[in-house]
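Internal QA ticket QA-208
Title: Verify multi-chain structure generation after dependency bump
Assignee: T.L.

Test input:
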Amino acid sequence: MRRWKMLLALMLGLVVIAGCGNNGTVEETDEVEENEKATGEVIEIEWLAHPAYSLQSPGPERVEYLQNQIDAFEAEHGNVKIKPDVLSSNISEAMARLMEQAAQGRAPAIAQIDSYILPRFYDYLQPLDPLFEQAGLDIEDFFPFAQDIMRGPDGQIYGIQFTTDTRVLYYRTDVVDSPPATWDELFALSEQLKADGYEAFLFPGGRGEGTIVTSVLPFFWAQGGSLVDDQDQPAFGTGENREYMLNVLTFLHDMVQKGYSPQRLANYGSEGDLNSEVASGNVAMFIGGNWQVNQLAEILSEDDMAKWAVAPLPQREAGQQATTAGGWAWGIFTDDPVKQELAFDFLMRTFVGDEGMASWCTLGGYLPTRHSVYEHEAYEGNEFTDIFREHLAEFARMRPAATVYPEISTQLQIAVSDIVSGNKSPEEALEEAWNAVAK
Amino acid sequence: MSKHHKERWINSGIYLAYVFVLLFFLFPIFWVLSLSLKSVQELFATPLIWFSTDPQFANYLHVFQNTNIVNYLYNSAKIVLLTVLFTLLVAIPAAYAFSRFNFKYKKISLFAVIMFQMISPVVIAIPLYRFFVQVDLINTHASLILVYVAIQLPFSTWFLKGFFDTIPQAIDEAAIVDGCTRLQTLLKVILPVSVPGIVSTSILVGVQSWSQFVIPFILLDNNELYPVSVGLVNLQSTIDAITTHYLAAASMLAILPVMLVFILLQRFIVGALTSGAVKG
Amino acid sequence: MTNLKLDYQQTSSAKVSIFKVLGNSPVPWLFPLAMILVFVFLYPIVDMIRLSFTNANLISAEYDYTLSSYLTLFTSSGFSRMILITLFFVFFSVLFQMLLGCLIALLIDQGVKRGLTGTVMVRTSVLSAWAIPGVIIGIIWSMLYNESQIGVINYMLHSFFGWSLPFLSDPNVALISVTLANIWRGTAFSMIMIYAGLQTLPRDIIEAAMIDGANAIKRLVYVVIPTLAPLLLINLIIITVDTFNTFDMVMALTGGGPGQSTEVIALSIYNRIFREFELGQGAATAVVLLAINTLMTIIYFHYMEKKQVVA
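Actual output:
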């Protein structure tokens, strides 16, 4: 019985402490806010970023860079504070939530938006043309695909894409003499690599956005396919688009069936999931994102790293080319002109201006979205940067911003992982995905 | 075979079974610990490394410094404690009424309460989110705790009712004859002898609330308010960095407090549950 | 029952304060409970049912009333498979959580009686698994199940037996893997409930059985299990409903893949709403889950009433 009493006392004590802590902090923040409002001393700029682009980033150098930029910015404007917040790392959920916030007028001053989805936020975002002009930032300096999404239907600029990425074929130069340009060449080469005991060709094939942007869209687009029609309604399951999509799915199916690609790809939904396979030293080729160069350099020994090179993706027919561009954009939601200007200034110095974009992209291993930044002294790419840049300038595309895209993507992820795991034939899988989306 | 011999064989059998149970339940945790102390090269090394030769405690330091894990844990603890408190405040009177009163529709009401136990949090989360936005209660621990309490109430009420039922009615009858009101009877007579039942309810409510994911995930969009379950999802592999070791370290930090509580309080937990509360 | 008599005694007493009158009606005692339950559950459920008859989308404000969500759901080829997957997941999770829970409870009980060391450690290790949030369990097991050469389970299988398993990439194996992780997570609850039940068993029953010469197995089957039946039933209801509603762990482990081979109903609701933003479809699926849970509960209660478990 005594034990029980002690325990009860302990628990009550904890409750009281927790309760007090709660009240204390709430009052405190209220007071601070009231003071600020009364004296007009401090302007808070809410800055919502993806975890990897925030002070919570796993990379210490990034955190240091961002902290320095914030400190410098706050030192310059004595009464301004950056108030950081982070997005959920699941991008589609984070974007859905930001959309709800924006619709309810609760969006932060600055928010990071997945570039392809930016057009859906036009209604809530502030036009930036005057600020661009004031800062001497030329939108023509951006890659064409970035300009497309930054400009709204009225011709005004609604966002700033500040990083991008692209997908390429990685191959081991010691076992692949020349990278395959077509699927036929890829099959022939894979047969030989398989005989030599290699995992010939890896791609993300599970449930995750990486599967669609890396393993499906580049091949689909290169043939001339389109996911949605002019009215933003699903179109991948009818007419020529259906044929193109079926070609892609059959290609992935055959790679697995012939034993060139392992079934376990059905469990890898993002490009980074392939890293652990590559680390085994048994992989000959894989398709992945440009940022994986840095990750591989971390995992592999210098000698092993030197064996890898990149090339354009092998396509169905020679001469076809396409790849996916991704990346992030900043949007400014606040309607207060003072805050807008401050927010823009912060973004310029940290992520968008010459120095800012060069430094941030170097740190994160991202590709700059502005041509001139590639020449900037602060930008350090890697030995493949020129190839990536060429890819982006010539044949990179963005996913459609249609409201139906998340559904299309999910259904195609299901289709691909079903095919890779051997659960369905390409025809069946496509049929089901189309039925689920078209309704 | 002598009896003594037989006993020894049985004991060895039990020990062997213990080993299997321990392996099954502790191995996953051991592996997370191992991952959390590896360097990036060791994470991907072939053949696989069982335990780092040079444990990277810096991984933990990194998680402490660069994530809000401490804050997440504090939030979780606060939410769980307040949920337990308010659940008890509401469930104890209700359980008392169900145990001691006779009224029309009693059976139906009790059944109705249990029916709420069947509702998946994911079903109610979206409408609640929209409602809380309208009344501007979104992003507060108060609204979150209200929902947590509601989720815990059906089971706790029912569990406590079961416990009160085991207390002989003669005790409160005597108290009422002595001039006590119902409330006094509950406070002075029933509660003191119900401590084990209340503690086991608290523990069950606490554990369930600690694990809750959907509700905070949807009702909160401010990183500073996240409990540990939601906070950790943010750490899960971002595409442009290798985070397995950090994720493992953060998971260990999220597991440790609970393990600690269980190790310290384990006598109470088992004691509370075994003192008749689960008679049904 | 004695309560009735008690009530009359009180209300007929001469000096009745308002407090006493109120105190003698069950209404004030139950009022907070009813308020909270109605507010947090009833309104959202009505709203969800309403939404299930619309084509609402999470990212656009407009919607029309329609039956298309249900039509799509019931006519899609995936629907019956989703139900089967869920039933498999729930049935085997519950079965093994009960069996394993019972076994471990008996082992610990015997251990304590025989004065063996290590019982506390076994108990704590099982309980720890239970207290880890589901998403973290999903993350942990995805590390264990990793199919490349850094996956530890496959590494062990390979070094001992020379083969490995497609834990998460084969549709059938993936469903088993997910179920196994869920058994790991949920066994503790059954274990502790049954262990507690064992402590409350009247000693004389067991002793009587021993005098009768019943051996251990017979004792278990004819004495222990029947005595614990009400407890086992309640435990069964709780974990069945819990497993039907569970998805956080599966979400972190497979996201429902490969294909939809591990997409249990609760996860499907989540995926429809939060990945595809299809609120109408998600709501319709939610109504189906609600219907299943209601049905299950009614069946259980019907059975329990017969067994006189509920007062």
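Spot checks passed. Confidence is low (pLDDT under 50) at residues 1-38 of chain A.
Status: verified.
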